[in-house]
Amino acid sequence: MPHTISGFSKLSKSEKIEWLLNTYFTDKDSARALVKQYWNTDDKLQKLHDEFIENTITNYYLPLGVAPNFLINKTIYTIPMAIEESSVVAAASKAAKFWLDRGGFKAEVLSTEKIGQVHFIYKGGFDKLEAFFKNVKPKLISDTASITKNMERRGGGILDIQLRNKSEDLPNYYQLHATFETLDAMGANFINTCLEQFATTFKNEALLFKDFTGDESNISIVMSILSNYVPQCLVRAEVSCKIEDLKSKDIPNPEEFAEKFKQAVSIAEVEPYRAVTHNKGIMNGIDAVVLATGNDFRAVEAGVHAYAAKDGTYSSLTHCSITDGIFKFWIVIPLALGTVGGLTSLHPLVKFSMEMLQKPTAKDLMKIVSVAGLAQNFGAVKSLTTTGIQEGHMKMHLMNILNQFEAADTEKVTLIEHFKTNIVTHSSVVEAITKIRESGNFK
Ligand SMILES: CC(C)(COP(=O)([O-])OP(=O)([O-])OC[C@H]1O[C@@H](n2cnc3c(N)ncnc32)[C@H](O)[C@@H]1OP(=O)([O-])[O-])[C@@H](O)C(=O)NCCC(=O)NCCSC(=O)C[C@@](C)(O)CC(=O)[O-]
Ligand SMILES: NC(=O)C1=CN([C@@H]2O[C@H](COP(=O)(O)OP(=O)(O)OC[C@H]3O[C@@H](n4cnc5c(N)ncnc54)[C@H](O)[C@@H]3O)[C@@H](O)[C@H]2O)C=CC1
User: Is Zinc-finger among this UniProt entry's keywords (predicted)?
Assistant: First the structure.
């Protein structure tokens, strides 16, 4: 019967593993061997990974794939993608190759402003609070001088602090709503440190403000934290070409394709059930690059989906137009990314990815990630509106099914050949593998 434990965090790594094995596993030797099999043989490298998080017992691998041939604003990139799902890297690569001959991707950063808030409770008149805020605002800024000095030297720092009255939404609730420029850093730690200093100064100065009476001076700070909703940290990526230039092996009738593609995007703009899946397809590309470059994918996910719902209904992040014979397809998304800080200079494979991306600035990375999302969506919607998604997806997923059945290399060769001309479904693969095994040819 599993039991709880106190002081688990203080145990050594081996002790933690032994506790787990004794508590949950019947075949302890196999479980121990598995955990250890995933340790890196280089002890120093393993220690680095152990120390990224807490209570580490082993490593959890994800494949790192690459999608070549991305032409973005006249530069060619090979994009690193860390993802577990088959066909994503292939679809991105295929879309990159498709647009390579059609002018490539154009991307531009529209804005780079990050947001943080001090949430507080104030019991008194708003006029007095406003007067206090005006009075204390310069000190809020000056008290953070030691924190912001380096960021300001680089050209960033605190952009503004506003007082916001939210008391109609929640009794006595107000905010300091601050905006920041964090340049090549995602900025979470910088922003949170500034906010906590704002909170301290704000609370202390309120106690001294002579116009506050009674309860008014006793401001209660609820919390100070950055927002992962960054609608003023936006990037736009686009592809476009003449409709007739869409013609290719898979697109024999470009007019019909363009219309149907645009309809598919329009459906995702108005129908939330479709929009969620449409955007999931976009996030296949975005998350994979965000992960490969050591960025915070939870922060990106939360911010992107909030942006998709900004007009009150969850909607598509991409858009399509056909005007004067020109097919245009674009994405606008908020992305708070870093190319310094966080894991970016610690994880060896992140450093490798950054070098492959030609050492991007945060703005460069915003463009690359938005393009990965757009390309991914192009690949998925192109398949959906032509062959259907299963043909390509299952072609790539075939290897996973074969591995589930522990197919030998010889069996794989035969079955891959067989499925070049047959439809891949889970049951058709099971049937085929059973058949060749029963024939006794390979085992
Ligand atoms: C899967 C493909 C690319 C096959 O497409 P294909 O036409 O069979 O590929 P091909 O063999 O003719 O190769 C053409 C190019 O595709 C790429 N490619 C092709 N195969 C590979 C491979 N093995 N490894 C790496 N790259 C590959 C590669 O760029 C290659 O060029 P080359 O390298 O030969 O010069 C195509 O059918 C496709 O793009 N399908 C869409 C798949 C997709 O979107 N998958 C995402 C997962 S499904 C999902 O989660 C999202 C979804 C669909 O629900 C979202 C939504 O609903 O919107
Ligand atoms: N809600 C959220 O999203 C939260 C996220 N986090 C985590 O915070 C981390 C990111 O925080 P950061 O403050 O970005 O990282 P960080 O704490 O590593 O700081 C990066 C620092 O790099 C320095 N720097 C050097 N060159 C710079 C340049 N060119 N531009 C800008 N800064 C430069 C700055 O001093 C900057 O503060 C991520 O690991 C994230 O997962 C932490 C708390 C909350």
Answer: no
* Same domain for 267 and 381: yes
Note whether 241 and 380 are same-domain residues. yes
Q: Is 280 a catalytic residue?
A: yes
- Phi and psi at 379, nearest 5°, equal -60, -45
Atom 27 of ligand 2, residue of closest alpha carbon: 184
Residues 6+ apart with CB under 8 A from 411: 402, 433, 436, 437, 442
pLDDT at 27 over 80: yes
Q: What lines the ligand 1 site, CB under 6 Å?
A: 85, 87-91, 93-94, 97, 277-278, 280-281, 284, 379-381, 383-384, 389, 392-393, 395-396
* pLDDT score for 421: 86
Q: Which domain holds residue 402?
A: 393-438
The residue to which tokens 């709503």 are assigned:
177
Best probe residue, ligand 1, of 83, 86, 93 (max atoms within 8 Å of C-beta): 93
User: Considering its fold, how many domains does the chain have in total?
Assistant: 4
In this prediction the pTM is 0.94
User: What interhelical angle do 389-404 and 409-418 show, nearest 10?
Assistant: 160
User: Element (H or E) spanning 395, and its range?
Assistant: helix 389-404
Give this complex's ipTM: 0.94
pLDDT by residue (tens digit) across 278-296? 999 999 999 999 999 999 9
| Whether residues 300 and 248 fall in one domain | yes
Q: In what order do the strands lie in the sheet with 326-334?
A: 106-109, 234-242, 326-334, 318-323
pLDDT over threshold 80, residue 2: no
Q: Choosing from 184, 205, 296, 411, which is the catalytic residue?
A: 296
Residue that finishes a domain, picked among 176, 201, 227: 227
Q: Which residue has a Cα nearest atom 21 of ligand 2? A: 341
Which CATH number covers residue 104?
Answer: 3.90.770.10
Q: Which of 249, 235, 209 is nearest to 97 (CA)?
A: 249
- Count of CB atoms within 10 A of residue 305's CB? 16
**Structural domain ending residue among the three candidates 193, 227, 261:** 227
Indicate which residue's Cα is closest to atom 5 of ligand 2.
188
Work out which ligand 2 atom sits closest to the CA atom of 296: 41
For range 393-402, the mean pLDDT: 84
